UniProtKB/TrEMBL annotation:
Monomer. Homodimer; disulfide-linked. One of its GO terms (cellular component) is extracellular space. Residues 35-260 form the Lipid-binding serum glycoprotein N-terminal domain. It comes from Lynx pardinus. Disulfide bonds join 162-202. It is found in: Cytoplasmic granule membrane; Secreted. The lineage of its organism: Eukaryota, Metazoa, Chordata, Craniata, Vertebrata. This is Bactericidal permeability-increasing protein.
Amino acid sequence: MAREPDKALTRATLVVLATLGTAVIATTNPGVVARITQKGLDYACQQGVAVLQKELEKITIPTFSGSFKIKHLGKGHYSFHSMAIRGFQLPSSQIKLAPSEGLDLSITNANVKMSGKWKARKNFIKTSGNFDLSVEGVSISAVLKLGFDPASGHCTVSCSRCNNHINSVRVHISGSSLGWLINLFHEKMESSLRNRMTSEICKVVTSSVSSKLQRYLETLPVTTRIDRVAGIDYSLVAPPTATTDSLDGQLKGEFFRWAHPSPPPFAPPPLAFPSDHDRMVYLGISNYFFNTAGFVYQQAGVLNLTVTDNVIPKESKFRLTTDVFGILIPQVAKMFPNMKVQLVFWASSPPHLTVHPEGLVLTPTLDAQAFAVLPNSSLAPLFVLRLVSGSQVWADEGSALGVGGPGCTCPGSDAPGSETRATVLTVSGFCGHSYIELFILSLP
């Protein structure tokens, strides 16, 4: 019996380890990382203030009503209606990073001017007129907590904290000979308006974030169609990460077949993103992004090209004919003398791109089949070519983009990995029923 607790402990340990293992396996690396720094947020805030002011001026203000009590006159009622914002000044607005949460939005010393109509009633006495309302020193601070929906990959947002303050509210009554009735209790009315607004501002902010901003984020597309074959999935794979310096969004960054979407047979590697924060925006793209593109287009069978002698410039001495290819393969010229040749190229496997500090290394594997064009326009297979090539693309800071081909050496050839790989050409095929011996050429 003494061993039972040990067995239970062992089983519990295995369950915990299995759970941890599952969590590790389930972790998805991003194919693309988008980063916006505090500089970028400052610029976005600056550009957005003018738009925000115009939008705030369109807000509809609900009717505000209350009661008053005047000595010797008793209790009455008033209401302010048909209110419209005439001006909204935002002298100081900021969007700051809130580490581990998201964004901290703040508005300081905002001023609002409104106008509308008022009416008051005391027993059988009724009066109405116009008013001007000035709200000064409005300060609002709200923290937006950012997350993501694993099912859809959309960003989620909620208001986790909100504080506000109003310095003063001033009301000017006009348009009625009985306006003095309202002016008798305008101080109390202004205090009441100020308290009412103070209690409602954060409610409005929190409600707007959940009902408007969140719904807007849910409508944003997380995929886009490139052409008839492929689309790009840039949905989130993890919640946005906020630090003291930047906000990072980890995106799937994956090409997929538009008609038949399915995950690629390889996973994205860890993406080491630099800790730079000097620019406004950074975009990190891993080789996974490009390799999924190669996989999708190769699987769709669109990476092919047909070359005929018609595309060769007339002044060129090289022609796509059996006589020219007969120099390398004599059987071709003997069996199909003085005939045109048609070449069909296709990618036999997805092109592979590798990202290095020195540049990009693209390794395509191409197959090409040569056909003799017979007098009746039918095609006779000649041979099959397989071309494996490594090409490097590099870009020095402040210089133009460069491309290295077979046998080329990139600038700064003393740097490791600056030389491109050799190109290997394998030829095999059929001329009628005869088999041409396999041989390999190392191209210069």
